[in-house]
């Protein structure tokens, strides 16, 4: 199914219903379809041909949604660009994707044009000196009579991976693979056309874009955009817009608690009763944190979701009644419509009590990495996508991610899972954040290094760390060195960029 067909269906069925809400602005399905057709005219008149790539670098604003659908109406391919990128990172994304034109929020235009000065840029949301105003051009354009005819198996998106273990790779998704997401998510999580989905996480990221924005619009629900996540404005937005569903990394839920502890926010004063699904991903929650969130948010409707950009993303889910009993798990098997295997280094499937790499298979999978056949070949075994995540399986069949395959530290032939050491260290009262990585060692192959952020910024010694862990982990797993840091590098999902840390230790 082509993505424009989804929008046109809801234009016919719900023309006056709000499709997108941003602040005081409300865009109906009829209005969104009209703007998308006008945006397509703007892009075509700028020289965009079927199959060309359109880069979009914005905050969570209507301009992103209009530009995305405009690209699809024009037969082009959307390239979402991280709005937090510095100029050299913009250069990489634009050059690697081969973008023909770019649309950028006015506040980000300086970075975009510095990173890619030769690319024609149009601005949205706020004008920027010297650049054409995309919103004004859309308003003045004639709407395209019909979508440019491209097959539903044609590329629709190039999504860049988080880059936790290497430089970002471009995942190529088709119209068909993206529209296959919505039925899986709707059935698994119980979405309906009544949804009022709050999107506060970056809209260019795979989950906010494909899982939540496009699935909500596929169903005929309403998407509420928060320009950027703000812990002080988050709960007021939930209350004022009568939000039914929200997705965020665990920190998005925890930051309001920190404001409350500092006396700057009264969480109990907000009416959050409209929310039927509090969803989180990017990291698991411990039992104590899960119980705390249930208490503070006055809801037991929390869902953990796990997936990869390469898969749409879809993968697994941990449901509300499993949050405390199976805290830290990503769920039991794949979501409906998703096959899952856990495979050891010898290619043998693992069951309860075993551990291995998670493999996924679904109709939502990418067709491959852009211009990278080697990485594509390494990532697939037939139809199965190798996630690179290592999981153990408990006696009930629930999966617990214990490491990235590339982050396993091998000391004297013994495998050490970095997340196991990190989890043990997180109980140290002087640590606010920690990551564990391997450092090359001539005799042992690698040695364990803990990168630590302390509560007061004062150094913590390796002897203190080893003493704390002495009764918790085998001796060979204990760090041999400690490196201090002011903060740890993370991607927008909250995952630590360990390949960056390895370069600095």
Automatic annotation (TrEMBL):
Domain (AMP-dependent synthetase/ligase) ranges: 8-370
Gene3D superfamilies, per database record: 3.30.300.30, N-terminal domain of ligase-like
Keyword Ligase recorded: yes
ATP-binding is among the record's keywords: no
Coiled coil residues, start to end: none
GO molecular function, one term: acid-thiol ligase activity
Keyword tags: Ligase
Name of the protein described by the UniProt record: Fatty-acid--CoA ligase
Organism: Gordonia phthalatica
């Amino acid at each position: 199914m082509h993505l424009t067909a989804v929008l046109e269906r809801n234009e016919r069925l719900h023309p006056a219903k709000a499709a997108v809400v941003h602040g005081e602005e409300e865009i109906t399905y009829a209005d969104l379809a009209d703007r998308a057709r006008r945006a397509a005219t703007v892009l075509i008149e700028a020289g965009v041909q079927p199959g060309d790539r359109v880069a979009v670098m914005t905050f969570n604003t209507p301009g992103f949604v209009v530009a995305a659908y405009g690209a699809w109406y024009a037969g082009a391919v959307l390239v979402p660009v991280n709005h937090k990128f510095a100029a050299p990172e913009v250069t990489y994304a634009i050059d690697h994707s081969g973008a023909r034109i770019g649309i950028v929020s006015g506040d980000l235009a300086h970075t975009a044009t510095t990173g890619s000065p030769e690319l024609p840029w149009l601005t949205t949301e706020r004008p920027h000196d010297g650049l054409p105003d995309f919103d004004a051009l859309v308003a003045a354009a004639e709407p395209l009579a019909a979508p440019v005819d491209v097959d539903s198996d044609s590329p629709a998106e190039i999504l860049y991976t988080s880059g936790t273990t290497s430089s970002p790779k471009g995942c190529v998704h088709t119209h068909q693979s993206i529209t296959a997401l919505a039925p899986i998510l709707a059935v698994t999580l119980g979405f309906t056309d009544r949804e009022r989905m709050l999107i506060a996480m970056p809209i260019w990221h795979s989950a906010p874009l494909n899982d939540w924005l496009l699935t909500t619009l596929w169903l005929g629900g309403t998407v509420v955009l928060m320009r950027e996540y703000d812990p002080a404005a988050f709960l007021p937005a939930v209350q004022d817009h009568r939000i039914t569903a929200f997705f965020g990394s665990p920190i998005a839920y925890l930051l309001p608690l920190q404001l409350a502890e500092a006396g700057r926010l009264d969480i109990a004063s907000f009416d959050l009763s409209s929310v039927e699904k509090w969803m989180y991903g990017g990291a698991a929650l411990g039992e104590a944190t899960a119980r705390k969130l249930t208490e503070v948010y006055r809801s037991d409707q929390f869902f953990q979701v796990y997936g990869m950009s390469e898969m749409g993303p879809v993968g697994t889910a941990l449901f509300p009644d499993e949050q405390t009993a199976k805290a830290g798990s990503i769920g039991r098997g794949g979501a409906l419509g998703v096959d899952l295997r856990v495979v050891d280094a010898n290619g043998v499937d693992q069951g309860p009590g075993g551990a291995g790499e998670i493999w996924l298979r679904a109709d939502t999978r990418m067709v491959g990495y852009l211009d990278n056949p080697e990485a594509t070949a390494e990532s697939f075994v037939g139809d199965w996508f190798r996630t690179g995540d290592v999981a153990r399986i408990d006696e009930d069949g629930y999966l617990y991610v214990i490491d990235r395959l590339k982050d396993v530290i091998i000391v004297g032939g013994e495998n050490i899972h970095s997340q196991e050491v990190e989890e043990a260290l997180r109980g140290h009262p002087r640590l606010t954040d920690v990551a564990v990585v391997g450092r090359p060692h001539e005799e042992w192959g690698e040695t364990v290094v803990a990168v630590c952020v302390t509560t007061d910024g004062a150094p913590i010694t390796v002897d203190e760390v080893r003493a704390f862990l002495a009764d918790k982990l085998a001796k060979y797993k204990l760090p041999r060195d400690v490196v201090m840091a002011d903060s740890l590098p993370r991607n927008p999902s909250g995952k630590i960029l360990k390949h960056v840390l390895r370069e600095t230790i």
